[in-house]
Amino acid sequence: MLALDAARSAGAQYADVRISRNRVQSISTRERRVQGLSDNETFGFGVRTLVGGAWGFAASSELTRDEVARIARQAVAQAQANRAALVRPVVLAAAPATKDGVWRGPAKIDPFDVPIEEKVALLLSANEAALKVAGSRFVNSAMFFLREEKTYANTEGTYTTQTIFRASPSMTVTAVSPDFSDFQSRQSTDIAPMGRGYEHVLDAKLVEAAPRWAEEAVQKLKAKPVDVGRYDLVLHPTHLGLTIHESIAHPTELDRVYGFEANYAGTSFVAPPEQMLGKFRYGPEFMNIQGDRMQEGSLAACGWDDDGVAPETFMIIEKGIVNDYQTTREQANWLDWWYKQQGKPTRSHGCSYAQSWSDVQFQRMPNVSLLPGEQNHTWEDLIAATDRGIAIVGDGSFSIDQQRYNAQFGGQLFYEIRGGKVTGMLKDVAYQMRTPDFWNAMDMIGGKDSYWLWGAFGDAKGQPSQSNAVSHGCPPTRHRQINVINTGRTA
């Protein structure tokens, strides 16, 4: 309250303040030894002000009455200085005030209450289980945890407190051929990072799953190199999440669409909105892409974003057509014409985020998910319906252009499909795509029972760069006649 009063007294028409304590812990191991351990905590506050349509921001880790007032006045001075370069005044979309709001992520076990020794013992046990599989030579495993305790207030009357948890267990097993001519790795991409506590690590059952990952790495050594050509692709949710992230979630960020990220993160082929909204066909009619920060256990879940807005669920793509973009309070007014045309209120979708108290908030990705189809098709159903294709499990390396239009994606496991059955394992597979062609080639989709949440833990954007974490839910899908190349290291 002192920060807000000082900002108003200095001339701010609007101000908000975030006070947060972030604790991050990571543990990494390799085979039978600990490779790294870090446990860091940062605590401080940031004040953002709006003066004459220009933003100002200042932050400090010193929480004294004098410093809080000084930082608030500094944020106002910054905004006043920024007015000289103002091109378009900032106008915030209306947002109802939340008084004394409290939200806590669904963590049953606070990961920071679990002793380091217990975590290390679990990782080393999982490594040992993987190394028992003949042919597995190297094993890396890790755990990452975050707990963010954040208080937010603004001059419009919003006051909220939140506790956010994130947990990410992971493992990579590498197998080497007896003559050392080849090596293949299997990453634990079927265990996604989540907005949960230490129970997520326990539920992952790393020790039990490690032998399977090791065996799959060994199997990849004997897999047949793929023949280049066009195939029907059956994509597992553990793979498809990354493709959604890169080819749908990023190009529908509104600041990217309008060119504000061109210097670093790129632009978007889904521009300009005047030519895309309600008109551009991204995919087939059964394709529906939802934005939200509300799915339980998802990485982007929160009670309020860093504009103090309670997030809403919204349709980015509806029945295959571009319907909306990701917005903050500042950005929502850029699409005011569209919302009025649709008979909807102009409001933020709750996509404001800053990675810590020392960073200014800006538009960041929510959860962006492909909704399941009406028919409850399973992964096995899609394979059974495919005559000649490749099934892909897990995400791998990728490359995509700055407009998110041309791309190439690898994976973890690849299986040849013939006559509706898996006939063997393939390797060296990557597929090439143009985003709208790829999604319009989707002709089958799984149902609600096959829906799964994939996660991205460190998605960078902005200058200075900030990272956020998001989940992308989806069922399995089938895409017809996609170009596949061979990425083999030898001719």
Please give a structural write-up.
- Helix 1 crosses helix 2 and helix 3 packs parallel to helix 5.
- The chain has two domains: 221 residues, 2-Layer Sandwich (PmbA/TldD fold), CATH 3.30.2290.10; 258 residues, no CATH class.
- Strands 8, 9, 16, 17, 18, 19, 20, 21, 22 and 25 form a ten-stranded mixed sheet that branches. Strands 1, 2, 3, 4, 5, 6 and 7 form a seven-stranded mixed sheet that branches.
- The chain has 491 residues and is an alpha+beta fold.
Biggest β-sheet description: 10 strands, mixed
Q: What number is the mean pLDDT?
A: 97
Number of discrete helical segments: 12
Overall SS class: alpha+beta
Report low-confidence residues grouped into runs of 5 or more: none
Q: What is the CA-based Rg, rounded?
A: 24 Å
Please outline the helices and strands.
Layout: H1 2-9, E1 14-30, E2 33-51, E3 54-60, H2 65-82, E4 101-104, H3 116-131, E5 136-154, E6 159-176, E7 183-187, H4 199-204, H5 206-221, E8 224-225, E9 229-235, H6 237-249, H7 254-257, H8 273-276, E10 289-292, E11 314-318, E12 321-322, H9 329-332, H10 336-342, E13 352-353, E14 362-363, E15 367-370, H11 379-384, E16 388-393, E17 398-400, E18 406-409, E19 413-418, E20 421-427, E21 429-434, H12 435-440, E22 442-445, E23 452-461, E24 466-474, E25 477-486
Parallel strand pairs: 4-6, 8-20, 9-16
Antiparallel strand pairs: 1-2, 1-5, 2-3, 5-6, 6-7, 9-25, 10-11, 10-15, 11-12, 13-14, 16-19, 17-18, 18-21, 19-20, 21-25, 22-25, 23-24
